[in-house]
Amino acid sequence: MNCIYCGEQLNEENNSKEHVIQNALGGLLESTNICCDKCNNLVEKHIDNEFCKIFSPILTSLPSIKKTNKSALPTCIGQAKYKVDGEIYRVTIKGGKIVDCIDAKREHRKNFTKNEYKDDFEILTYNFDLENESFRNGLTKIAVNYALHNNIPIEQIKKLIKVQQQDKEVKNISFNAPIVPFIPLNSLDAFLELGTTIELYHNLILFSYKNFLVCFIDLFNTFQHYVILSNEWSGKSIHHSYLQLIEKIDRSVPMHKPTDIKDIHILANMYNIEPNYDIENFLKDIKIAIQKKSYEKDMINYLSNRISRRDCSKIIDTQNFKEIVMSTRFYLDEDDVLIKEHYKIFSPLLCESTKSILFYPVCLSKLFDRGYDFKQYTFKKFKRLTSHLNENLSKTANNHNDG
Ligand SMILES: [Zn+2]
C-alpha cells in the first residue's frame, strides 16, 4: 500500500489513521492504508479545518461534539424572526446566541440590547456557505476516503485528487469531482426527509450503476449530496452503506413494568431483544441492550424503522394518492423493509404513458443545470436542523439553571 497523495510506501511507522468523515464533525469511522502521517497533517490543514468551519453553528450547539475554546467560537450569519413586528431579519449568531442584527443597522434603526436579542428574537435558520471550494474539497475527500475504505482501486478515482509537489515535497492537496445536491423526487423520500422527527446522523452510500460510481453523502441528516466518483466505472456492482448517530446516546434505563405478554413483545421489539417471560431477567436484558447501544447502525434497519406504510399514507404535502402508493411499492418490500438497491439510487417516475425509473444523481444533475429550484428544500432542511439545535441549547441552558 502506498500513500494516495505522495506515493510513499506505507509501513507501521508512517501509516496513519484517517477519519472517513472528519473527526471534528463527530465522524467515528476510521481507515488505515489511505495516507502517510505527513500527508494526513497536510490534509487536515488544507482541507478539513476549512471544511469543518462551515458547520460551526452545529458544532457549537451540540454538547456531544468536542468543543473548541468558547472565546474562539466563530460567528455566523442566520435569519431570525423579530417577535415584535413579525418580520424576518438577518442576524449574526455566536454560540447559539444573536449578537447583532445586520438589517437593523443597515436601515439606520436602533441597535438592540442583549436582552432584546435574547427575548424578542427567534433564530429560524443558520446560513451555511456551501458554494465554496472548501465545501467541495471536504465533501469529495469523504467520498474518496469511503471508496478506498471499501477497497475501490485507487486507479479508478485518482483523477479526482490534485497533488501539488515541489522538490518531491507535497505542498498542496485538493479534490475535484462533480457534486450534485439532493432533493427528494418522490413522496416517500420527501416524507423520510421532512415528515419524520429529526435524528442527527451521518450517512454514506457508495454505489455503482452502469458506468457510474457514486457516493451519496448525508451529513447531520441535512447536507445531502452525490459525489460522482467515476463515469467510467467498469468494475463489479457496488453497494456499501454506513450510518452513524451523532448525538450522545442516553444510556439511562427507563422504568418498565411489563404486565402482560403484549407489553413484553412491544419492549422486546423496541430494544431488539428476545422476549422473556421471566420479568426480572427480561429487565436485565433491557439494561444490557441499552448499555450496548451503538452509534453505528445498519442503515436499512434503522431507516426502515423510521417509516411504515401507515405513516407514509399520512404524507401531507402530496395529494397524489397514486404517487404515494407507487413510491411505497417501489421502496418497501412486503415486510415494509427498505429495498437497498433502490433507496437514494433510483426514483420512480409517475407518468401515464411510460413506466420508467430515474437514476437519482443524473436526473438531479439535469434539473440543477436547468436552474430548477433546489433552495426551497435546502431551506426546509436547514430550518429543521436549526430548530432542533435551538431545542438542544435551551435544554442545556435549563440543565445549568437546575444545577
Ligand atoms: Zn503521503
What is the total domain count? 3
SSE pattern, N- to C-terminal: EEHHEEEHHEHEEEHEEEEHHEHHHEEHH
**Rough shape?**
globular
Kindly report the average pLDDT value.
Answer: 88
Alpha-beta classification: alpha+beta
- List the strand order in the largest sheet: 9-12-11-10-13-14
Low-confidence segments: none
How far from one another are the termini? 53 Å
Largest sheet: 6 strands, antiparallel
Tally of contiguous helical segments: 13
Q: Which compounds are bound in this model?
A: zinc ion
Strand content: 15-25%
* DSSP helix fraction: 25-40%
| Rounded Rg | 23 Å
Number of strands: 16
List the helices and strands and how they pair.
Blueprint: E1 18-19, E2 30-31, H1 37-53, H2 56-59, E3 75-82, E4 88-94, E5 97-101, H3 102-106, H4 114-120, E6 121-126, H5 133-149, E7 161-166, E8 169-175, E9 179-181, H6 187-195, E10 201-209, E11 212-219, E12 223-230, E13 239-245, H7 261-271, H8 279-292, E14 296-297, H9 299-306, H10 309-312, H11 321-331, E15 346-348, E16 357-359, H12 360-369, H13 375-402
Antiparallel strand pairs: 1-2, 3-4, 3-6, 4-5, 7-8, 9-12, 10-11, 10-13, 11-12, 13-14, 15-16
